[in-house]
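Lab notes, practical 5.
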Amino acid sequence: QIPLIYGIDAVHGHSNVTGAVIFPHNIGLGATANPELMEQIGRVTAIEIAATGIDWTFAPCIAVPRDERWGRTYEGFGETPELAELLGSAAIRGLQNDSLNTPTSIVACAKHYIGDGGTQYGDDQGNTVITEAELRAIHLPGYIEAIENDVKTIMATYNSWNGEKLHGHSYLLNDVLKTELGFQGFVVSDWAAIDQLP
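Output from the prediction step:
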């Protein structure tokens, strides 16, 4: 009774398809601070994904890059939580539209929960060493806004928080995300990330 859902990394347009519209990476879109533009980009992307029979995209990335040495800085909208809130939620509205029952609506996926842009020295898949208050102030606001905009899926991150891998972090995945924030969708693992757990 579990339905099949197929997802794709259409993170700046449906770039796997010849002739699809390709948009700038999120760091470039963050420079616009324009939620209306971001929502239109989400809408165009959703229409082109839906045309290929796919139902789900692993976007938007609402990381808050804090160290430019992180090789994936371009995936975030910028170093402030306000940009993640503003533009991440706009992308979700564009992708999911008013209803997922329409033929051009795509399931969105806010990623990568949580703290991927805050690792020490910018290490990819590294360790985010900050207090819970800092984690909540910097890296959580985009997810709160995504949930308020009815995002249906959230992707867990490769990184650790204070030494504990997020894919196995019961407190952040269950207590904070599901219980405190009331996220009703499902959490998906990042590629092979569960293999990093003991």
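Observations recorded by the TA: Residues 40 and 164 are 38 Å apart (CA to CA). The helical segments are 26-30, 35-50, 81-96, 132-139, 141-148, 170-180.
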